[in-house]
Amino acid sequence: MAAAMAATAVERAVLEEEFRWLLHDEVHAVLKQLQDILKEASLRFTLQGSGTEGPVKQENFILGSYGTDQVKGVLTLQGDALSQADVNLKMPRNNQLLHFAFREDKQWKLQQIQDARNHVSQAIYLLNNRDDSYQFRTGAEVLKRMFAPALPSDLLVNVYINLNKLCLTVYQLHTLQPNSTKNFRPAGGSVLHSPGAMFEWGSQRLEVSHVHKVESVIPWLNDALVFFTVSLQLCQQLKDKISVFSSYWSYKPF
């Protein structure tokens, strides 16, 4: 019995020493890696064209999709906003060609890009406050009036980011009459709806009849996603190592 208790005490002491090394040394090494990776990611979100005082760089993206030419267009991305749009839509019912663009005084803010940039900045700020001298002690520490000419009343347009792609979706709608026998089921807040989806627009109840989607890859956003993935993997690996020592958190700080 005494030998077993002595062996357990030695094992516990070894684990405590390993945990202390993990908190005091390896954590800082991993955080330095994270800092370097996130700084590279933040460069992909730089808004200025050249230097800190330069104009915001414009990038043109040609939208397309495989197997259909119902929708064609070019979107101009400027930082975290779409500053210009030039879209052609071929109506499937009569092959009428519609053309619409953003009004000159309008921009379409892409909140997803803005949020991602803000999160990267916040993460870098937190890492900068945990330099090598910091001692870790515990493991627990997107409208119709937007376009010119105005869109027909039976069309809606949405622009959004999906992974590394800039996507534009055109919805053709028809109004559900008050005496309709269809059971009205609101589709909710999804960014992409399928034919048959229903929702309310003002006082009208509408149903999606056709959906046309085109997209274009944003190269620098693809790079940023790679950096995000590597950062998350590093964080998960560090979390898993610390979790090994979770049984010691409740009784002994380091």
From TrEMBL:
Pfam families: Rogdi_lz
Cellular component GO terms held in the UniProt record: RAVE complex; synaptic vesicle
Subcellular location: Cytoplasmic vesicle, Secretory vesicle, Synaptic vesicle
Family: Belongs to the rogdi family.
Record-given protein name: Protein rogdi homolog
Species, as recorded: Phyllostomus discolor (pale spear-nosed bat)
Gene it is expressed from: ROGDI
